[in-house]
Design a protein that fits this description.
two-stranded antiparallel sheet, 290 residues, mainly alpha, globular, single chain
Length: 290
């Protein structure tokens, strides 16, 4: 959650990423001997004809044939698995300051470098409370497993709900009042619950973006905010049991496995949901600056 930034609603995601009309393949770097590349082949044979009283004469004839099959156009990242396709779309929704692959212009306050943020403890608490509601909802959906594919993601080690509960208890012990969840968290949790019951591909998009973004940019945001308002205290929200990189790799493999059962149309539908996941998570992230 912590690493997401909202995207401009005026920006057309698929006019940039071309998932509906994938870009043509470049031959650069490809194996030109690949069976998927159009080839032109020549066949040479001799045609014989005979005339009464004369020996048969041979005449060389050249026939050209061009393969009818054309290479299926690849989607960005497809060769490495579907998780890479999701990562590609997500990275392009960042600003240039956030990621070198980013294409979005900086417009919102939370899209500026974290070093320029002016967070408050009260705003950070609102962010943590709303984040916990979303993680509670996500983990409840996975536990219930309305679709069999959801069961693949039980007990991945990426779960954050218990860690957030410990952090909120710590703030309470410091004398801070813990607020009730606000509209951004309530709206996102409601949307995730409804989506998970009818649209597994779209739900998996949110699952991926929430957990993977928090493990990357989210940790950086947590560190910088803690330095500004918590005397550098590290929260449990940004700690994992075990090797985080291995936990992420395990989930990548599960996501790729699930996506192997989807059609290309279902995969594209999943990718199209990325914009909404950024918007909802960006609304929660903005609470830090409230």
């Amino acid at each position: 959650m912590a690493s997401f930034v909202p995207i401009s609603q005026s920006q057309s995601l698929f006019s940039n990423t071309h998932f509906k009309n994938p870009p043509p393949l470049s031959l650069s770097g490809l194996n030109l001997g690949s069976e998927f590349l159009p080839t032109k082949t020549s066949f040479r044979f001799r045609a014989f004809r005979s005339f009464p009283g004369k020996p048969m004469e041979g005449k060389a004839v050249v026939v050209s044939a061009t393969t009818a099959e054309k290479a299926r156009k690849k989607y960005p990242g497809e060769a490495k698995g579907f998780v890479e396709e999701m990562r590609f779309v997500a990275m392009r929704l960042h600003t240039k300051e956030q990621a070198k692959e980013g294409e979005k212009e900086t417009k919102e306050p939370e899209e500026r470098p974290v070093a320029k943020w002016e967070p408050s403890v009260e705003g950070y608490l609102r962010f943590l409370v709303d984040s916990k509601l979303v993680y509670d909802t996500l983990e409840g959906i996975i536990e219930k497993a309305a679709f069999d594919s959801y069961a693949e993601f039980k007990n991945t080690g990426l779960e954050r709900s218990e860690s957030l509960a410990k952090d909120l208890e710590w703030f309470k012990e410091q004398g801070y009042a813990i607020p009730e969840p606000s509209a951004p968290g309530v709206n996102y949790a409601k949307y995730l619950k409804e989506l998970s019951e009818k649209d597994p591909q779209a739900f998996i998009c949110h699952f991926y973006n929430i957990y993977f973004a928090h493990s990357a940019g989210g940790r950086m945001i947590g560190k910088k905010v803690a330095e500004k308002i918590l005397n550098g205290k590290g929260l449990e929200f940004y700690k994992w049991d075990g090797d985080l990189s291995q936990l992420l790799q395990n989930v990548r493999e599960k996501l790729n496995k699930v996506a192997e059962t989807w059609t290309r149309e279902e995969k594209n539908h999943c990718l199209e949901e990325t914009e909404k996941s950024f918007k909802y998570s960006g609304d929660i992230l903005r609470l830090i600056l409230s």
